[in-house]
């Protein structure tokens, strides 16, 4: 693989061929989605595994257009209006997202488990004109004094506007398509502003390897949440624009997911580490289903340990297991592994996607670092956010004058241009001046045969400053002790990285995208103290 490091600039570039964005400035994400409709108009686009309903690409285009027409004529949804989609995963979710953005309006999405208080922060921030939701969530939105559309039943709405004049909104690549709220693991969530061009760039970057190797039509299983950048943009939009089919599940349930893989001959499962771990820990269940169609299992949102990847390959010997790296602020993607040319299971997040570039910056000197040296990852690319919505201060703290986005992630590149994301900068444990990365210890804990799940957090200590503390979920029937867990880690790491305290827990709290909510575990410790 070509050396991707330039010592004169201290930056890393992609080994992949560059992408070409649409030349017309008036190409919206919906225009781009259907640019090759003639080639796959009758092919499946969205598949509901519960009802077994299949929506073809031509039907998808028609449904988007019909709903957009109704939203405009009934609620006067027009350019730059914000519409909140507050719903669980379903085949109707992308239809609503694309209907809103086709009008030049802005789609914002929210986690369906949000409380009214959490939702009110987002509503007060972006001020939507309309809420699209489902019956079960109506009580949460009824107090906001905003019109509400039922995502699963809008036929009356369509009927009312059937004979109204057809509109042709003017939408440009520079228009804002969505405001996605970052997970808020460090304080209140912020609105990440992405334009049509940025979303199209993400789609081309994500699928560049599929294009290069002329990969045929594929079937993807979507179990990650569609309100999240990874579900809606990195996976669903990116693959639909290639003509691939998406089997949309409400959430990951092991046997239902395996049944969907078998029934629809799913070729790709792109997900988050908890799902990969569940597959690895239940090989007997997996063997009851025909998963021979599965060619690729991709993981993102949090680091996936090398040991878990190795185990996954034993369960799915015919599939490549790979991971990528991205954030909401980077349009969902920075790098991804290419299983065809990269050595597998290195623990890396692959090489930079086309158009992306990065630096690794020394935490104290702020100087760029060469390969194999650990620092903060800075990156930039055509898919990176425009700004944080109505938050100039946070934007300036995150994106510098040269356009580098300071990710807050700790990592390094190797000589082959592969990026290794070690942990969040703010989550490093400072033990007697040494820096300990929780994710490294979590990866080792997950390799223990009696551990189902684990998380590591800093625990205040008068002598050391902070010590690594592990929260561990035992496998059913296990009686592994805290001392045995500590000994298991002590044999594999330097003394300063050893786990000094262990607590057992029923479930590790995680965000919908699969990131460990360490803040909740730290609060748990504080409340017990």
Overall description:
It is a single chain. The chain has 529 residues and is α/β, with parallel strands linked by helices. It folds into two domains: 5-419, Rossmann fold, CATH 3.40.50; 428-528, ANL, C-terminal domain (GMP Synthetase, Chain A, domain 3, 2-Layer Sandwich), CATH 3.30.300.30. Helix content is 30%, strand content 23%. It is built from 18 helices and 27 strands. It has a nine-stranded mixed beta sheet, sandwiched between helices. It is globular and about 75 Å long. The termini are far apart. The mean pLDDT is 91.
Keywords:
single chain, globular, 18 helices, seven-stranded mixed β-sheet, alpha/beta, 529 residues, 30% helix, GMP Synthetase, Chain A, domain 3, 2 domains, Rossmann fold, nine-stranded mixed β-sheet
What is the helix content? 25-40%
The CATH class of the largest domain is identified as Alpha Beta
Total strand count, please?
27
CATH topology of the largest domain: Rossmann fold
Global mean pLDDT: 91
Strand content: 15-25%
- In terms of structural class, how would the helical and strand content be classed? alpha/beta
The description of the largest β-sheet is:
9 strands, mixed
Annotated CATH architecture of the largest domain? 3-Layer(aba) Sandwich
Arrangement of strands in the largest sheet: 4-3-12-11-13-14-15-16-17
**Oligomer category:** single chain
C-alpha Rg, in Å? Answer: 23 Å
């Amino acid at each position: 693989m070509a050396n991707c490091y330039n010592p004169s600039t201290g930056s890393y570039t992609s080994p992949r061929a560059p992408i070409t964005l649409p030349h017309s400035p008036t190409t919206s994400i919906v225009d781009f989605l259907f640019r090759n409709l003639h080639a796959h108009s009758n092919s499946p686009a969205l598949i509901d595994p519960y009802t077994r309903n299949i929506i073809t690409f031509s039907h998808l285009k028609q449904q988007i257009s019909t709903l957009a027409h109704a939203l405009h004529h009934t609620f006067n949804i027009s350019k730059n209006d914000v519409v909140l989609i507050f719903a669980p995963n379903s085949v109707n979710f992308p239809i609503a997202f694309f209907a809103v953005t086709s009008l030049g309006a802005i789609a914002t999405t929210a986690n369906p488990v949000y409380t009214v208080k959490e939702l009110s922060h987002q509503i007060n921030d972006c001020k939507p004109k309309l809420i699209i939701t489902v019956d079960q969530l109506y009580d949460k939105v009824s107090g906001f004094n905003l019109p509400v559309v039922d995502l699963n039943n809008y036929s009356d709405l369509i009927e009312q506007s059937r004979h109204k004049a057809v509109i042709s909104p003017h939408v440009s690549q520079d228009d804002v398509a969505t405001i996605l709220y970052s997970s808020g693991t460090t304080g209140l969530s912020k609105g990440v502003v992405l334009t049509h061009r940025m979303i199209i760039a993400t789609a081309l970057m994500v699928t560049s390897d599929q294009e290069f190797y002329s990969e045929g039509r594929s079937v993807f299983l979507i179990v990650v949440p569609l309100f999240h950048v990874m579900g809606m943009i990195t996976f669903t939009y990116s693959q639909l624009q290639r003509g691939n089919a998406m089997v949309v599940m409400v959430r990951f349930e092991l046997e239902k997911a395996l049944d969907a893989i078998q029934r629809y001959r799913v070729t790709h499962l792109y997900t988050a580490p908890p799902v990969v771990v569940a597959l690895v820990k239940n090989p007997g269940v997996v063997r009851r289903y025909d998963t021979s169609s599965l060619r690729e299992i991709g993981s993102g949102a949090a680091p996936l340990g090398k040991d878990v990847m190795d185990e996954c390959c034993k369960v799915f010997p015919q599939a490549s297991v790979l991971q990528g790296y991205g954030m909401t602020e980077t349009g969902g993607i920075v790098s991804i592994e290419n299983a065809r040319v990269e050595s597998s299971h290195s623990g890396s997040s692959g090489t930079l996607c086309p158009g992306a570039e990065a630096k690794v910056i020394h935490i104290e000197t702020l100087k760029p670092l060469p390969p194999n040296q650990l620092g903060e990852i800075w990156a930039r690319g055509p898919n990176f956010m425009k700004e944080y919505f109505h938050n100039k201060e946070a934007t300036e703290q995150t994106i510098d004058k040269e356009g580098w986005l300071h990710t807050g992630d700790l990592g390094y590149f190797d000589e082959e241009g592969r990026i290794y994301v070690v942990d969040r900068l703010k989550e490093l444990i400072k033990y007697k001046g040494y820096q300990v990365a929780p994710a490294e210890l979590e990866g080792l804990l997950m390799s223990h045969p009696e551990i189902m799940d684990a998380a590591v957090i800093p625990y205040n200590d008068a002598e050391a400053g902070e010590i690594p503390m592990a929260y561990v979920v035992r496998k059913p029937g296990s009686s592994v002790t805290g001392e045995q867990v500590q000994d298991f880690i002590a044999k594999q790491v330097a003394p300063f990285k050893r786990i000094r305290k262990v607590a057992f827990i029923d479930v590790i709290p995680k965000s919908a995208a699969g990131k460990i909510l360490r803040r909740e575990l730290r609060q748990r410790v504080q409340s017990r103290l």
